[in-house]
Amino acid sequence: MASYIPMSAEERRAMLDVIGVGSPAELFAAIPPRIKLPALALPPGQSELETCLLMAGLAAKNRRFPLIFRGAGAYWHYIPAIVGSVINKEEFVTAYTPYQAEISQGILQAIFEFQTMIADLTGLDVANASVYDGASAAAEAVNMCRDRRRNKALIAATAPPMVIETIRTYCFGNNSGLELIPCGPDGLTDVAALAALLNDGISCVYVQQLNFSGLIEDAATLCQLAHDAGAKFILGVNPIAAAILPSAGEIGADIAVGEGQPLGLPLSFGGPYLGLMATGAEMMRKLPGRIVGQTTDLEGRRAFVLTLQAREQHIRREKAGSNICSNQNLCALAASVYLAAMGNEGLITAAQNCYAHAHYLAERLAELGFVRLHSAEFFHEFVTDSPMPPERLLAGLEERGILGGLALAEGGILWCATEMTGKAEIDALVKAIREVSGQ
Amino acid sequence: MNVPRELKYVKTHEWLNYLQADKVRIGISDYAQEALGDIVFINLPAVGDPATAGEPLFDLESVKAVEDIISPVTGEVTAINEKLLDHPELINADPYEAWLVEIGEISGSEELLSAAEYEALLAEEE
Amino acid sequence: MKLLFERSREGHSAQHLPQTQLSGYSLPEQLRRCRELRLPALAETEISRHYTELSQQVHGVNSGFYPLGSCTMKYNPKIDEQIASLPGFTGIHPLQPVSTAQGCLEVLDRAGQALCEITGMDAMSFQPAAGAHGEFTGLLLIKAYHQARGEGEQRTKVIVPDSAHGTNPATATMCGYTIVNIASNAAGGVDLDALRRAVGADTAALMLTNPNTVGIFDPNILEITRIVHEAGGQCYYDGANMNAIMGLARPGDMGFDVVHLNIHKTFATPHGGGGPGSGPCGCKAHLAPFLPADQVTEAADGYRLERPAQSIGRVKAFFGNFLVVVKALTYIISLGAEGIVEAAETAVLNANYMKKRLSPYYHMAYDDFCMHEFVLSLAGEKSRFDVSALDVAKALMDHGMHPPTMYFPLIVPEALMIEPTETESKDTLDEAIEAFIAVQRQLQADAASLRQAPQATPVRRLDETQAARRPVLTYQEKEL
Description:
The structure holds three protein chains of three kinds. Chain A is of the alpha/beta class. Chain A contains 14 helices and 14 strands. In chain A, the strands form four sheets. A seven-stranded mixed β-sheet of chain A has the order 2-8-7-6-5-3-4, sandwiched between helices. A three-stranded antiparallel β-sheet of chain A has the order 11-14-13, covered by helices on one side. Chain B is an alpha+beta fold. Chain B has one domain (about 15-120): CATH 2.40.50.100. Chain B is built from four helices and nine strands. Chain B has helices spanning about 30-35, 85, 90-95, 115-125; strands at about 10, 15-20, 25-30, 40-45, 50, 55-60, 65-70, 75-80, 100-110. By secondary structure, chain C is of the alpha/beta class. Chain C folds into two domains: about 80-335, Aspartate Aminotransferase, domain 2 (3-Layer(aba) Sandwich); about 345-460, Aspartate Aminotransferase, domain 1 (Alpha-Beta Complex). Helix content of chain C is about 35%, strand content about 10%. Chain C has helices at about 5, 45-55, 80-85, 85-90, 100-120, 130-150, 165-175, 190-200, 220-230, 250-255, 265, 320-360, 380-385, 390-395, 425-445, 445-450, 465-470, and strands at about 125, 155-160, 180, 205-210, 235-240, 260, 280-285, 295-300, 300-305, 365, 375, 405, 415-420. In chain C, the strands form three sheets. Chain C has a seven-stranded mixed β-sheet, with helices on both faces. A four-stranded antiparallel β-sheet of chain C has the order 10-11-13-12. Chains A and C meet through helix 1, helix 2, helix 3, helix 4 and helix 5 of A and helix 2, helix 3, helix 4, helix 5 and helix 6 of C.
């Protein structure tokens, strides 16, 4: 059995003597005998070697695909080596939330830098220290916009189903309304339908830029409509695409949220990921979660501290806007290191490569009879129909070590290309599809 | 503790300055600002918001606390002291100069205390 | 310490990506961003040194003693980190066919079964990303349950003791409930009469931490849950303090219907400076049909994912903070049945040892044996010497340790809450005890100096008022 308790039998005895009891069991006298557990029905402890073999065995039961053309909310991107090196530093890994600023400056400054870079990426004034993931960030943003008079949110039906479902669940919690803005035949949010749905009871409009089909929404027009009706506008952003698409700030969004996983976090079967949130100065005090601010210490030196804490649950309790405490701090650190390592040029290159590779992929697929279902402009994901049953195609690709696009319940296949899947990888996919389809 | 004679008070430590029979300015007492410490932000209500005597109307934030401001009267918010939005420290500097809101069309109020009565209340709480 | 942006020099960069071979594809000009990016330009050497310098200004569990009450800052085993970084876990797409992710599903299944055994629950969801998220999920289960029984309209109140974590009332509000606060009794536990008065046909749930936030196991726990159930309410267990009793007593046996656990406290996964955590939510069978997202089930051909019949939906995308669950499972397998009990017993032993030895020097808020943590009050020092819990906490930093939790729970004035955990040696505890005693002596001899602490840290006390009044939340180039 592994043990992480640095204590000899003699030391234990000495401590029990100081306390004045014969055994640790006496310290648990307050537990009613009826509910004292005789024994845990779990296997006995294992040595580190045994544990290692067992867990590695579980990892080995997974199939890791050397080539991935699937996104749908989790993206395969290159992670510079420096990211892993920094986020594995023990001090960063093992510290708690930086409540005691005097001995937490490293974490606080790192968060301040993260906030700065997310604000820059989104073109907004302020960002928080992160929340759980992109979907919960969207739900928190919707919550920020509610007030007594406006208690219903309009959510683009083109947003990813998991994001919509998360927002819906949060709305079930606080008894607020939600209605979907229909998708037009072009795969984009129906502008006229949004106009018809808006009224003075609408708190906000949520649109995800890149929508679930990978298409680029006319966010500026949708934002203007929302604002004309007095509603807030929330833009869900992909942080890689944000390097070249108009920023949330340029579009006029009140809040930007996003899934930060593409910024240096591995796929990891869906988590831990990173919820990004940024907003303008007017809504700063409605942001949930931790926020770091700059100040000075007793000697006048620049220093950083958790601030605007009176928003939060530990002070405001039942009047807090959110119950959130934990952020995804180590993931935020990974994103910071990633952005610092990439720089402007690197991030723009990543975005341009995603765009170029996806468009090349779409052309090659079209030649094989996989025709795009939409004509609107896209970034790095797109939906095609399939000349053969998608299940058969995808199973055939899996046999060849390729995770193909995602077969959608409503029909079609959602494909994704990133900087990881360049010409050689796409040509390999094309060859595999030819084999599977017998072309 | 500074307790100006010309003002009225309520037991939740707000002061009232009647401008007309049905219009009043309210703020927090010297005692309240000291108890709260450095005020960092004030969540003022909007003009036109209804106020109900005995109910929270808005709140003040210090670094580590939030204090509800209980409306001492029933009526409607007719003005807010916007200067405080950028300078909440004015409340700490002079709580009787830094009025918070003006409430009009008053139709009811909490029990009002004179300066002497309020001083007696403070003495009790000490 | 310079910021990344202040180290940035035009022309410094690291080429991580090749230019694509596929020229001729580029986003149309009219769709492009106008606002220029202002990320820093740095070479890898500069980034590496920057973060090394930052890491040297952080106190982690590996830097020294970290008795932060309510946070269970135990040692984070290295093997857990190593296993969670296996490519067989990190390289798996969450939307792969389940037949190709059987290892991941088995991790969730095994961890779920172990945690059900430890908590006495019937089902476990790993969707919640942290404790507060688990609370939110758990209360939504209760809400959906009452609604399904036609009592949703009627049951509008959640009872929360005044000693509760702030997340409890905040969570209840997020779930559309109004809060009924009840006072604690003199022993720090639930006041049974107050509870009896509070429950009724409008009670949706009671939220309770046990051992509670003053570090005491409530001996009336069976009566407490009985009172709530008789009124038709559900009992919610806040698992923040599970480290004290794991393997020894189970919330399910105490009468609780739903629990959340803080994996990043009880099961040794690191806090990462504030996250990622993991806050699985477990429940009894009658609440299981409402669980969020997909549950893992075992069938003849392997593990599958299945959506519970009346699911509340989902609280985030995908399966939760999966890698954190991998770490926790590694920990549970390493310790095994006997190791888990030993951890809990030693956590309690260490807390009682510190409490006993500090009793002559500090006023303990409660006299009895404590569980894994205890609370002392500096109210006396405050009135006699004008020295606060904050001053004492800051002074402890100069002794190389992380201070205890300050000003919590709210029912103890000038509170310091100390949780040593089981992974500290007697030597470490003795050194910490000496530090506490030294601070008490300093306090009596020279109170003014204590108000100036800390002196030996990278920065001194901060102006938090300025930070909150004039928030500067991003780097502004112009200011310099």
